[in-house]
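Q: Fold this one first, please.
A: Sequence and structure below.
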Amino acid sequence: MAFGYIGSMRTKPGRRNEVVGILLNGTDGLRAAGCQAYVVGLSDSDEDVIWVSEVWDTKEQHHNSLQLAAAKAAIGRAMPMLTGEFTSQGMTVAGGVGL
């Protein structure tokens, strides 16, 4: 079964759109790295929170994707705009629409 990840991050006030742009700009190599789905969402109740949902072929591919040069560069650009408040949850994906 596939590996799923759901996480949230809090941006500094007024920086959410910039971080979303960084997250969505760096998606070109994800499919080749084993990503089946990558969704960036905006909290409806908090204007500084971003949710990211991902589905990967394996947990290892998710881990390895964070070592890609493009991912490291995107993280480096986004980190100064984040507060350091993160949530994360890994899971085994049983199935769903689009997978």
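Q: Good. Now the second chain.
A: Here it is, same layout.
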Amino acid sequence: MSKPVILCVDDEQTILKSLKAQIKGYFGDTYNYEVAENADDALELVEELVEENVKIVIVVSDWLMPGMKGDELLIEIHKKFPNIVTVMLTGQADKTAVERAYELANLHGCLRKPWSDEDLLSLLKSALAMT
């Protein structure tokens, strides 16, 4: 049986590397960590993992990305896979987009960039308690 997955989505490579390193540094080998650079890749990856019976526990997504915005991505994921916990990480999301994500994607939480290690890990721990 494969380990559950935490998926991080951001169009900036440096953010993805930092996020993955922080999360893996804390949770270690308990989870597999996947990344996607845009919403389309993220949706494709989620579909593939679900088809392979791999449990995705959390999707952490940036808001401002080319193409589909993060709130739209998280709403789409929640519609198809309501058991996946959604988290938004953003420096630029407007209040309306965040409110939409809370309402339509059952958003667990939203962190502003730059985030602190403590805030990120606290949010993820509370999200994992829901899985």
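Q: Anything worth noting on the second one?
A: Residues 5-128 form a domain with the Rossmann fold fold (CATH 3.40.50.2300).
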